Every structure is written in structure tokens, then in C-alpha cells.
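**Reference record**
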Amino acid sequence: MSEPTLQLEDIHGRQAYTLENGRLHVSALRGGGHLVDIRLLTDNPQAAINPFYVPNYPTIDPHTYTADQHAALYGEGANARLTAGYMGHLLCFPTFGPPTPDEIANGFTFHGEAVAVEWRQHRPPQHSPTAVTLYYGADLVQTQYRVERAITLHANQTNVHVEEWIENLADFDRPFNRDQHPTFGAPFVAPGKTMLDLPGTKGVIKAGRNAGGGLPIGEVIWPYAIQPDGTQADLRAFQATPASTTYYPILLDPARPMSYFTLYNVDYPLLVGYLFPTADNPWIVDWQENKSNQQPPANGQMIARGIEFGTSPWDEGLRKSIDRGSMFDTPTYQWIGGRQRIKTTYTIFLTEIPVGFRGVADVQAQAGQIVITERETGRQISIANG
């Protein structure tokens, strides 16, 4: 058994806090706070890939972006800082989606302030022979919030546990969006081969974001959309239509205290998943980019699948989510009280899977284990947890 370690190192050309335990490696960037590198430490190279999205262009810490120096590569405006630092798992807070025109005029960024600032260690890490915990966070000066995370890696385990706090530094109650935005990329993500499983109920597909016309418009019942001819379109697979974008929200089963999603590629023996409280995250979004974005620096080369879970079904910005109010009788934003501090949690887990794996029927946390039940066969894979 290897004692878990924590160190500061360069990951993809940027400074990151890295936790390892001999079986799992996970890194968190200082710039934007993104989780960017999570890998099984194994001799099997196909199982040791990083499933997170890493762009095919160099990124920078978003708080170092200036239009004079960086606009030629990353563009200008509300999306520039996000694009400059984008990879892996983002925290979209306190907004999800584009700023309003007035917010853009005041220098506000796409997906909220948390993605665009420097995250620093705010207290010493905790070390023991059996676990290591990183504490890091950021003050959001524009929006008067504080965000903090504690990332814990236990010895001899292939999952990492995240505790996350948002704190309202203002004296008054106010609404917010908080959406976790894990983004997965090549080679783990590939059209027609990367499969998604989750405990979904119903959702909506809109025109313009329906896999280039490959999916029907309207309400869906997970995991299928019904084509005009009555046939079923499978939503689990990454849609294969070239040069297309897909985006649809799904309401998670509100009867479940804990929800999950899992992804795997039929060509790789690796499963990645998240386990999180449903009440904090009633919505999950499947966003797929299949080389449709021709703007630099993507230049038609981006293949990514973002599985975004949180308070809001549409990446439309806080104001529009408040105007919408609800969908399927479920709120599309949440409230925080004046000076209130709110905690949420999630667990990220990785495991090797056998050839011919059918997918995931259920994920449960029970008695120190994460238990994954396979679709069709009922076979179970157990991962030590906590």
C-alpha cells in the first residue's frame, strides 16, 4: 500500500496540485480550479488514459489573460478567459452560460467568475498514512462569493472524494447557478463509441443542438428519443453526425437520494463515473461537440463530451434561468441566504471493465463500497470507498 502524496507540479504546461496513491493520479489546476488529469496508475496503457478533455492548443491560466497578448489565439469578449484556460472539469458558478450585455460591458465571463480566477491553498493539507486532503479555493471579487474545495484521496483506492462550499459574502439572499462541468475528450471520447449511463427521467432536445439533425426535436424519455417514424434513437452513444453539436438536459430521478453518471468507450477497458446528491443537482446535461466549432482556437478539431450536473438545465445565464423559473415542475436555479455557506459533495471513480461490457444499470454507495451493476447481465463491480 502506497501512502497518498500531494505535490505542486506542471500539468499540460500549467501549475497543478497533484494527488497520488499508487493506484490513482488526480490533478487540480490553480488557474480556474479545474480538475484536469485523472488516471489509473496501471501497467495497462489502455486503462491508464486520462478521460478528461485536453485541447489540441496550448492553454493558459485564465486570470493571466489579456486581450493585447492573447486575443489572437483565444479571441476577445465574454468567452475569451474561459477558452484560454478550458480543460477537464470546470465549476460554473455563480452563473451557467453567457453573461448579459451589461455584464459583458463590465468584464464578466461565460460560465461565471469561478472559471476565470486563481484558486489557492487556503489551509495546509492533511496528511496521514491512509489519506491526503487538498484544501483550495478562491474569492470571487466581482460577485462577492467565496468557493472552496477539499479533495481527499485515500490509500489503495481508485476514487477521489470532493467537498465543495460556496459562501455568499453579501448580506442579502440571492439566486445562483452552480453546475459542475466535467468535460471528456479524445481518445476516450469518440463518435459512436463513448457510452453514457445515468438515472434519467425526461428531457428536451431543441433545434440547432440536435446532433446536426440526427436527433428529433421535443421531449425525450431517457435513454431514447423517438424519431418521427416511430423508431428509437439511442441517447447513450456519442452522436456520430460529423460537424455537429448536441445539447439536451435530463431531469434526474428525484426519488433517488444519490444520482450518478458513468462513461466508457467500447474500445477501452476503462469506466469513469460520478456519484452526487440529487437534491443539489436535479439536472444533468449531455453536451457533445463533434468538430462543429470552426472558430479559433478550436478550428474544427474539437471532440468533447461534457456531462454537466447541477442546478440548471440550460446554459442560458442566471437571469434567463430565473425568468424561466422551472421546467418539469423543477426549479432551474437555487437560492443562497445572506452570509450563508452551502456545502455539496461528489465522488469521482475509475475502474477497469471487461471486454464486451454492456453499460451501467445502477451505481450505489453502500458499506464502504461503490457498487456498479452492469446492464443486462446484473454483474457487479465493487470499488472501495472512504
Summary: The chain is about 5% helix and 45% strand.
